[in-house]
Amino acid sequence: MGRKQTCCVLLFAVRNSSEKNPAASTAENSKHSKSMPKIFTPTNQIRLTNVAVVRMKKGGKRFEIACYKNKVLSWRSGAEKDLDEVLQTIAVFNNVSKGEVAKKEELQKAFGKDDVTEICKEILAKGELQVSEKERQDQLDSMFKEIATTVADKCVNPETKRPYPVSIIEKSMKDIHYSIKPHRNAKQQALDVIRLLRDTIPLERAKMRLKLALPAKEAKRLKERIAKLSSTVTEGEEWEGERLMLTCLIDPGHFREMDEIIHTETKGAGALEVLNLKEIKEGEEVLE
Fold first, then answer.
1. Less Cβ around it within 10 Å: N or C end of the chain?
2. Cα dihedral sign for 63, 68, 73, 77?
3. How far apart are the C-alpha atoms of 167 and 149, rounded to whole Å?
4. What angle do CA 278, 282, 287 make, to 5 degrees?
5. Element at 273 (helix H, strand E)
6. Which residues of the chain have pLDDT under 50?
7. Predicted TM-score (pTM) above 0.90
8. What pLDDT is attached to residue 280?
9. Can you tell me the distance from the alpha carbon of 125 to that of 58, in angstroms, rounded to the nearest whole number?
């Protein structure tokens, strides 16, 4: 018998034997299955990739949340308001890299609550973003620039009414050794910087130009109220029928108070119109 015929006979014999005794085949498979190690995945583990971790220590324990990169600062600045766009998963971890989820009892003990969403928000607001030293420095440099740009955009030299270049504001911030606060947004810090820089360079908020319409019966009293706003400068006034028209410059910080005086105390009979959000002269200020 040739080699090819022999192989065919053997193959037929093996198939025939398997079909006649399926129990033996099943037993063999079961034997191999029992010898293979079982894979066990803890139920409190979640594996994530490409994660930005925010860490917070509370009650002697470490808690972490897993965020999308570049979204943490957006949330803290108020630019991003959708929590689902910030968190990779609504969960609090003991260790994100190991996928270890914190137990409910641990959260209750440390935070005094077990509402995971609220705890995530607290960690997001107060926790420390885990980044490399280079990333951290890049973020600080970017925020420093943003603060300086905001100050330059909102302020002028009160003597010339001209805005300062961003470079001069940056230099002045370095001169006073201003330290960036990563947990506060740039706009909030810009207001702090404005107060601090007033001691080193001539600086004030650029004024808003408003046109006010005061009803005749309330004109005298309201005019006195408006005059008490320290930043108010009356540029002109004239009567139009039964209303006194005032044009004035005010500090933007007093706009809400001015708006309330006009609309609340006149019971809707008065009016306020913004003529210019930022009163400045053309050209940039130069420090000698």
1. C
2. negative
3. 9
4. 100
5. strand 271-279
6. 2-20, 22-42, 287-288
7. no
8. 64
9. 14
The residue type found at 198 is R
pLDDT value for 192: 95
Residue at 97: amino acid letter: S
Closest CA to 139 of 182, 187, 76: 182
User: Residues near 188 by Cβ (< 8 Å), separated by ≥ 6?
Assistant: none
* Contact indicator for 76, 125 with CB cutoff of 8 Å: yes
| CA atoms of 200 and 6, how far apart (whole Å) | 102
Q: How many CB atoms lie within 10 A of CB 239?
A: 10
**∠ CA(272), CA(277), CA(283), 5° rounding?**
150
How distant is the alpha carbon of residue 270 from its chain centre?
A: 38
Measured CA to CA, the distance from residue 28 to residue 32 in angstroms comes to 6
Question: Looking at residue 61, what is its pLDDT?
Answer: 94
102 and 63 Cβ atoms separated by less than 8 Å: yes
pLDDT in tens, 225-277: 888 776 676 778 888 888 999 888 888 888 888 888 888 888 888 899 988 87
d(CA 192, CA 34): 69
Residue pLDDT, tens place only, 208-228? 889 999 998 888 888 888 887
